[in-house]
Amino acid sequence: MKKWKRRGGWAAVAAALLSGCVGVPDAEQMRGIRAESAVRRLDDLARKTTTESGVYLSGPLLLWEAVSLAQSYNRPLQQERVGREIARGRIEASYSEALPTLALTGGYVRRDEELGTTRDGVYVPTRLQDQYSAGLKLSQPLFNGRIGAALRASKLYGEWMESTIRAATESVQRETIRAYYSAVLSEHLLEVNQTALETAERQLENTQARRRQGMASNYDELRAQVEVSNFRAQVLQARNDKDVAYTALYRLMGASPESAAELVDDVPRVVEAVSFADAARTALERRADLAVAEYALRMQRESVAAAKGRYLPEVSGYVSQAWANPDPHESTRDDWGDEWQAGVQVSLPLFDGLDRRGTLIQERAKLRQFEIALRDAEERTVSEIRQGVLSLKTAEEFAHSQSQNLEMAQEALRLVEAGLKEGQNSPIEVMDARQALTKASANYYESIFAHAMARVVLQQAMGLMSPDVLPDAPVLGIAASSDGSVGSAE
Questions:
Q1: Which residues belong to CATH 1.20.1600.10 in the chain?
Q2: Which stretch of DSSP H or E encloses residue 460?
Q3: 95 near 155, Cβ under 8 Å?
């Protein structure tokens, strides 16, 4: 009985191995694995050094440095670049259609019984019970309809992958620039609100002093306290927005979230003149996604050619060398012998159950899909360019108007503060003017950010995004300032 139990246990283990159950963690084991990973990751984050959790940054950080770090350490971009190895493997695999193959074979056959005959009282075997064989076979394709298509498709795939990586690189650069400028904007907005809070606190102290002297009412003091409370809340929100913006920037750069970088570059205001026709022409020539769609279409054409090639005959040559027991030249001889063969094989399928026809129909339909996709990508490009040019123009006008509005708000506050000293204006009017200046300052910085991002979006839409071309200088076309000078950057 014990013997059968042991056999049953071994049978269960064998069944588990064959089914793949052994070595696959269950839910509880997976939580343990993730717990160990969490400990390692938190330990990395606690150290202010470069670890697996990312590059630790401290000190000044320029925009080009942020872009360079993102190009090197951004995780999704690293995944895209691994596609180069996939493309290299596909190119090498495609040569199998044209290169020879060499195979080593071997075999053993045990017959149920040996057969033979007796002649003149002597037993002569006609079929041995044990048969052994080994051999080498070299095959060389000479012609089939898939060789050329496979080689061309593999090279197209390599170019398609490079275009895909370029598109991903451009997207990462745009998002890094956006995150960098967003972090800079958050610093400006925090500074604006902190300045407003400090001014409101001084105003509250002044109002309280005036109230003790009987020169201000309880309402004036209460109104000043409310203003301080409102600005304090705005400072807290602005500080949180800054933390969020920096965290997003570190994530894109593949940097440690515990980094303490100091952003150096400000959000630029570069005024450029760009026409729709020039921008559209540049985009249709240079955009990475259009190159991706074009390569995809060309690869599908090769798939159609390969499907058509299945209707053509396949011709291959071969050379083989075999060793066998019994001797291949004398089947009754119980000894090793060898033989070689050389020949040409020709194959032409006459009917395959409509497999070739069905495949060709599918590939032609896919080709039509890729043609439509390319046309759609071109139309989408033109639409994005038109929208980008209009958005840039609107952003330029908005930034200009907010610059003037900021100057007026500063002058208004100066006038009411002077009028308060002379008794011509009330503290309430000063508070209103200060709130207006705070709002105007925030709108100004946000308009500069919106203008810069409109340029970045148009730069990518035109296919001009590259690691060595940043939006802190004219990159879209003929740059001109509002007074007509060329290359204006504010």
A1: 80-99+146-312+351-479
A2: helix 427-461
A3: no
Report how far residue 490's alpha carbon sits from residue 487's, in angstroms, rounded to the nearest whole number: 10
pLDDT digits 0-9 by tens, 119-175: 777 777 778 878 889 999 999 898 888 888 888 888 999 999 999 999 999 999 999
| Residue 283, phi then psi, degrees to nearest 5 | -65, -45
Whole-angstrom CA distances from 353 to 349, 356, 361 are: 10, 8, 14
Q: pTM to 2 decimals?
A: 0.81
Residue 88 neighbours by CB under 8 Å, 6+ apart: 158
Q: Are 129 and 325 in contact (CB under 8 A)?
A: no
Cα separation, 37 vs 83, whole angstroms = 27
- pLDDT band at residue 468 using 50, 70 and 90 as cut-offs: confident
Task: Report the candidate in 439, 386, 426, 469 with the shortest Cα–Cα distance to residue 170.
Answer: 469
The answer to whether the beta carbons of residues 316 and 140 sit under 8 Å apart is yes
Q: H helices of 264-354, where?
A: 276-286, 288-309
Give the span between the Cα atoms of 190 and 193, in whole angstroms: 5
Query: Angle at the Cα of 119 (from 115 to 120), degrees rounded to 5?
Result: 150
150 half-sphere exposure, CB direction, 13 A CA radius = 17
Burial 328-350 (b: 16+ CB within 10 A, else e): beeeeeeeeeeeeeeeeeeeeee
Q: Which of 408, 400, 409 is nearest to 438 (CA)?
A: 409
The H or E element spanning position 340 is strand 337-347
At residue 82, what is the residue type? Answer: V
Of the pLDDT bands very low, low, confident and very high (cuts 50, 70, 90), residue 19 is: low
User: In terms of CATH, what superfamily is 80-99+146-312+351-479?
Assistant: Outer membrane efflux proteins (OEP) (1.20.1600.10)
Per the structure block, which two tokens stand in for 370? 């890729």
